[in-house]
Q: What sequence folds into this?
């Protein structure tokens, strides 16, 4: 049974539900900066950016990498829909470092390719940071 100072948090990818837990606080990367949510928050619908998701429950803390998507808060329920959600413990630091090298080597010949390069660099940098925070 959930206490009144918690809310349900669900992190869902196209493949599976990555996290389902009662939370006391969640911080997520919105498209325009980090946002935090506590219990009994007003309804919210927000586009996600690339970054780290911090979920605090009464007994533990979860740290995940997320790659865009949307977050909705209605009542005492938060739902995060994202293309990718990786727990920090599952991130391979060598693979993230290699991804950063490859992203920096990408050619930027037009607006779309520069944007793709910047997103790839951001993904790799966040994954490297999270792999060190295990």
A:
């Amino acid at each position: 049974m959930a206490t009144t100072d918690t809310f349900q948090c669900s992190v869902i990818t196209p493949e599976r539900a990555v996290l389902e837990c009662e939370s006391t606080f969640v911080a997520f990367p919105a498209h325009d900066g980090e946002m935090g949510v506590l219990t009994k928050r007003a309804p919210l619908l927000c586009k996600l950016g690339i970054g780290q998701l911090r979920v605090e429950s009464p007994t533990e803390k979860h740290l995940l990498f997320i790659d865009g998507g949307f977050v909705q808060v209605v009542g005492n329920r938060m739902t995060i829909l994202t293309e990718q959600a990786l727990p920090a413990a599952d991130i391979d630091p060598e693979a993230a470092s290699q991804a950063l090298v490859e992203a920096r080597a990408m050619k930027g010949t037009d607006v779309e390719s520069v944007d793709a390069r910047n997103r790839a660099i951001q993904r790799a940098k966040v994954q490297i940071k999270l792999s060190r925070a295990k």
Q: What stands out?
A: The chain has a mean pLDDT of 93.
